[in-house]
Amino acid sequence: MKKSRVLRFWSGLCGLLLLVFLPTVMFAQWSVPVQLTSDPGADLKPTASVYGETIPWFSSSCLTWESNRDGDWNIYSVFNTNGDSWSQAIAVTSDSGADLNSSVARDDSLFWAAWQSDRTDNRDIFVSSSTGSTWSTPTQITADSNSDENPSIFASSYSGTLWVVWETERDGNWDIYASCYNGSAWSAPMSITSDSSDDRRPCGICSAPWLYCPPLVVWETNREGDWDVYYSVYQSGSWSTPEPVVSDPGDDLRPTLAADFFGEGVWAVWESNAAGNPDVLCRYYSYFSGDWEEIDTVTTSLFRDANPAVIDFHLPVDAELYLGCVLWMSDRDGDNNIYSYEILGGTQPVDLNAANDSLPAVTGVTDYTYLWLWAIWQSDRDGDWNIYGSYQCYLIGVEEQAEFRSPISESRLFQNRPNPFTRTTIIRYCIAQRGPPTNQLVNLSIYDLSGRLVRTLVDELKEPGYYSVHWDGKDNAGRQVSTGIYLYRLQVRSLGGEQARALCSTKKMVVLK
């Protein structure tokens, strides 16, 4: 990737440079692979819920996949609520038909799975929900006499809606359709494409919840002779006219999406053989400009790099550090293995094994002290196909000092992010060194507009350095505050001498409920 793009890749700030600082724990090696399934049958095509759809911090995650362990093909799942381990496999379906090609998402309170099933004699789309244990009775959302396949499910907690998009053969060729759930019922299928060519493998996403950003869907299409990636945005009650994300002489396939952390846009990532062999490319869409930035490369190897997966995440140890991870399958080491690219850590293998590892997915879980970034994939290393995972662990903390980076010339209070926010926000500040190394008394407090103290977040001695603290929207008594504008004030005092008051800075933030 070009250096100018590296500095702001994943920032989503569209023109602002990303301040590149390394946090305390950054870009560790991936863990030894963890075997998540060990059934004699085949466990294939893992998918993972990601935080970008609904919540800024992902305290739990869900994986789904298809399995023939019971003789028929059914959908299974595991849940992660503590970071470094997963639950036992839980059946989503147990039908005598073939349930395939699952997708999973999370809204405010539930995990949702969607898949295709031939239990009704033709292939239709079904959905089910779970609180993290058992799954609800499947709901059928399509009932056409032609095939409906390859669903992608995604949620928007801000608008309170859930979407499923899929490919359908109901018009004689493959087109993209969608249905929306408003909390009580699924809408009638609505057409996104109606071209005479084939439109396949849709992927949809809504951005972060504190801004209303419309649903966006990408897919692969051969309407121009070769395969390209197109997109459509849902606005004012209808889907926009499809337009290209990329249109070049090669084949562009398997597009996937990740919302940026602040909800200002999305990243599209796909595989392309425009340069002769498959590489992974990416492009950023800004909701503010309504347009795509230039196409950039994630890989440029002489081997096959395919089946990408992507996530955007944020490490709250620095004022401006927002990062991302792309996974893909590569045969650069002779076998098919999973590789990763992280914006500051570069390319590295997740695992090297003399087997076929393919179809990666990516997700994460945090307990507000550590963040576990998980790579998930299917592997035949044990003779049959099973689901494997590997993770990196980042120390983040509710309040954590970053690694010392350079002398800080002045203490500073940064704008909280996100702002406005609904559940939690991160406030960052830095403490300058005054004379000989010494601790300074730091107070960070939140007030309402009348000047009443709402919450004291920090009141202790601090060494010079960069800090961040998270506020969960509660006052000192543990009560949730109401919607409105609040002030947060940083006061830094030396322990004596001529600079008794080193800093007093106040900023505004907005709480939305």
Summarize the structure.
The chain is mainly β. Among the domains are: 1-30 and 298-397, no CATH class; 412-511, Immunoglobulin-like (Sandwich), CATH 2.60.40. The protein has one helix at residues 3-6, and strands spanning 34-35, 43-48, 61-67, 74-80, 90-91, 99-106, 111-117, 124-130, 139-140, 148-156, 161-168, 175-181, 190-191, 199-205, 216-221, 228-235, 238-239, 243-246, 252-259, 265-272, 279-286, 291-292, 296-297, 305-314, 322-330, 337-342, 346-351, 357-366, 370-379, 386-395, 412-413, 425-431, 440-447, 453-462, 465-471, 484-493, 503-511.
Descriptive account of the structure:
InterPro entries: FlgD/Vpr_Ig-like, Sialidase_sf. Residues 442-491 form the FlgD/Vpr Ig-like domain. It comes from candidate division TA06 bacterium. With 513 residues, the protein is mostly beta strands. Among the domains are: 1-30 and 298-397, no CATH class; 412-511, Sandwich (Immunoglobulin-like). The protein has one helix at residues 3-6, and strands at 34-35, 43-48, 61-67, 74-80, 90-91, 99-106, 111-117, 124-130, 139-140, 148-156, 161-168, 175-181, 190-191, 199-205, 216-221, 228-235, 238-239, 243-246, 252-259, 265-272, 279-286, 291-292, 296-297, 305-314, 322-330, 337-342, 346-351, 357-366, 370-379, 386-395, 412-413, 425-431, 440-447, 453-462, 465-471, 484-493, 503-511. Strands 14, 15, 16, 17 and 18 form a five-stranded antiparallel sheet that branches. Strands 19, 20, 21, 22 and 23 form a five-stranded antiparallel sheet that branches. A four-stranded antiparallel sheet has the order 1-30-29-28, with no helix packed on it.
